[in-house]
Amino acid sequence: MRVGIGVLGPVVAWDDVGTPIDLKGPKHRAVLARLVVARGRVVPVGRLVDDLWREPPAGAVSAVRTFVAALRRALEPQRPPRTPARLLVTDGPGYALRATPDAVDAWRFEDAITASSTSPRQTLDRLDQALSWWRGPAYAGFDDEPWAHVERSRLDQLRLNAIEQLAEARLVLGRAADVVPDLDAHVAEHPWREEAWRLLALALYRAGRQGDALAVLRRARSLLLEQLGIDPGPRLRLLETDILRQADRVGDGPHPGLGSDSGAGPEQVWAATAAAYDRAVPSSSGVRLESTVGLLRSLAVTGAGGLEAAREQRITAITVAEQLGDPELTARVIGGYDVPAIWTRSDDPAQAARIVAAAERALAAGAPGAAEATRARLLATIALESRGTRAARGPAAAREAERIARRLGDPALLAFALNGVYMQTFQRAGLAPERDDIGAELVAVSTRHGLVTYEILGHLIRLQARSALADFAAADQHAVAADGLARRHDRPLVGVFTRWYRALRLAATGPVPQTEKFTHREAPPAYRDAEAAYRDAAAGLADAGMPGVEQGLLPLALLCLRVWHGGPVDFDDDTDWGPYAPWARPLVLLAGHRDADAAAALRQTPDPPADLLFEALWCLTAQAAIAVDDHTVMQRARTVLAPAAGELAGAGSGMLTAGPVACHLDQLDAALRRGG
To answer: Collapsing DSSP states into helix, strand and coil, what is residue 95?
Structure first.
């Protein structure tokens, strides 16, 4: 007996002649519905228990098994005793529904609305039939169940899209007047769907009702502005313009809503392409998620708002991919976000940890034959998102990603992997030359293969490395190259880093004060200029959407400058040191003549994180240790800083410096000799 299952309305089942099958009680229907939602994947018994009861009773597991047994008898009444079920099967820790795609109305509906058609007439017939399968809201009776909510919403969006596609097919066939009543009811029920308003106005216009068409567009505009505070989208605006101009073929051709005599600009091309994509690609398709990641990549480099939005939506895309239960799709969604990163402190450490965990799950779930490139992208993602931590996994993942990329000979993959390697090249002081080599290779590979964003990254890495090595002539060249690429390719965030670099350069190359200590009033002009440059750079960073860079950076830059040049370490009590508070606190306490408190704070100061400011923070710690005569910390600081003796402390960040590491080492040696 062939069984059909319906969830586009109340949950029901029927036999091969259409006779309803008794599914017993609501819990039986809930089990069946939950398995339909899983789309053939196994649902563990424990999950079924949690989904069926908010507070599971004693014996809930046995009850689930009883429900399953009853469903099997109802759905396969002719199955001989003790033979395995073929439809509702036991698999490992739970159950799965092994139905064919056409056996469930929701699955059949999705296939129907995404099928290709050879003509508008065929499209109309196909969509008309598919919409006839709806008997009410999907999964009716389970409205408040969390496991049904996402699927109900997804199916409803597919239904609304299909209604609009059906109306468009009727318009193409010249049946504008027939479309108007249905679309009028549609927009009344779903007033936020701009495409529905557009189709209604277009139908009215083609039915000879130009005034009504314009009234509909203005009603849509008023509703969106008053209720949501947003302007109509480009397709609605363009249709209104075409109607007012009485274009000959409003809504015809490959760009709906665009008259034949209108010149298409970027806005129109974008709107038309997005609309075509929306019609052609099912909303439930994994392709949409992968396309979304591609869009997020572009969004992340457009400016502060784009970066923040991309960061927020990225984790959502990963979560949705995991919910779909396709490990390979999840891996592609995670690894597809190959946005270059230059700063070693994450903007959102909690989110970074979630991404690392998701990438590790995707690696663990990957099939043995999964693409090596996909694996390398997951590893590079782990390396990037582990930045600033001391976890051994980050460097190991970076090295493995690089090996795979070199073996495959894929330049884009190699650039992504090298970004991960760069982020993990902070395990000790004095590694600026290694990072310079990474930057040089990134520039070379990216220039050959047109990888603009990674070419910019390579120049910024070299800017940092050459600054650390006090080679400002070379660093200047990389700053100019990065700015030039940013202007040509519209990468506004690059200027944040080059502006800070120029403040650092001024601080590092201005005349050193002749006195050991001085007040703000006595400060020489070069010192005051450096402080002003830092403040200007910080003002440009305030709205850049990079909290991992911004938090505490300005006071840290000023502190490093003052400690190096003997300026007054006087800061307001409410100064926000961000993540750098542990290393600033001993020096601030010393400036307030609280030596005992400073010594206690120094003893609690942790080792700096493995990042771009590693040497600078150690130099601040060293100066505090000298001031309170803590020989243990002094010796530790000297050992850690020795490999960077030829560098400027902190200048490898491209942002700030605490002066030559060699000067701090000399002061440590002198203090240790005095105490020895």
So the answer is: strand
DSSP 8-state class, residue 409:
T
Q: How open is the CA angle 319-322-325, to the nearest 5 degrees?
A: 155
Q: Does domain 116-280 have CATH number 3.40.50.261?
A: no
What pLDDT score does 143 carry? 86
Q: pLDDT tier at 553 (50, 70, 90 boundaries)?
A: very high
Say how far apart CA 292 and CA 288 lie, in whole Å: 6
Sheet of strand 88-91: strand arrangement? 43-44, 94-97, 88-91
Write the DSSP string, 314-359.
HHHHHHHHHHHT-HHHHHHHHHT-------SS-S-HHHHHHHHHHH
**Whole-number pLDDT of residue 259:** 37
Count Cα neighbours of 148 within 13 Å in the Cβ-side half-sphere. 23
What percentage of the chain carries pLDDT values higher than 70?
91
Contact present, 72 and 79 (Cβ < 8 Å): yes
Q: Which two tokens stand for residue 591?
A: 């400036």
Measured distance CA(176)–CA(167) in Å, rounded: 9
Segment (H or E) for 181: helix 176-189
What is the mean predicted confidence (pLDDT) over 329-344?
92
The Cα–Cα gap between 111 and 102 comes to 9
Report whether pLDDT(456) > 50: yes
With beta carbons less than 8 A apart as the criterion, state whether 133 and 80 touch.
no
Separate counts of helices (H) and strands (E) for the chain: 30, 5
Q: Give the pLDDT confidence score for residue 514 in this predicted structure.
A: 40
Domain ranges of the chain: 4-106, 116-280, 285-424, 513-675
The class of domain 4-106 in CATH terms is mainly alpha
* Distance separating alpha carbons of residues 527 and 368, to the nearest angstrom: 60
**351 has pLDDT over 80:** yes
Q: Which residues pair with 4 in a beta bridge?
A: 14
DSSP SS3 for 438: helix
Environment class of residue 208 by beta-carbon count within 10 Å: exposed (0-12), middle (13-18) or buried (19+)? exposed
pLDDT digits (tens, 9 = 90+) for 254-275: 333 333 334 455 655 666 676 6
Strand, coil or helix: 20: strand
The residues near 478 (Cβ < 8 Å, ≥ 6 apart) are 439, 459, 460, 462, 463, 466
Mean pLDDT across 371-380? 93
Mean pLDDT calculated for residue range 47-71: 92
- With b meaning 16 or more CB within 10 Å and e meaning fewer, what string describes 375-384? bbbbbbbbbb
Confidence of residue 568 (pLDDT cuts 50, 70, 90): confident
The structure tokens listed for 245 are 């101009």
d(CA 667, CA 622): 9
pLDDT digits (tens, 9 = 90+) for 523-538: 566 678 889 999 999 9
Q: Would you say 141 and 25 are in contact if contact means Cβ atoms under 8 Å apart?
A: no
Q: What is the 3-state secondary structure (H, E, C) of 557-617?
A: HHHHHHHHHCCCCCCCCCCCCHHHHHHHHHHHHHHCCCHHHHHHHHHHCCCCCCCCCHHHH
**Helical pair 349-365 and 304-324, crossing angle rounded to 10 deg:** 30
Q: How far apart are CA 137 and CA 520, in angstroms?
A: 72
Here the tokens at position 303 are 């400016």
- Looking at residue 651, its pLDDT comes to 95
Q: How far is Cα 345 from Cα 330, in angstroms, rounded to an integer? A: 25
Q: What is the DSSP letter of 674?
A: H
* Alpha carbon distance 257, 268 (integer Å): 9
Q: Does pLDDT of 253 surpass 50?
A: no
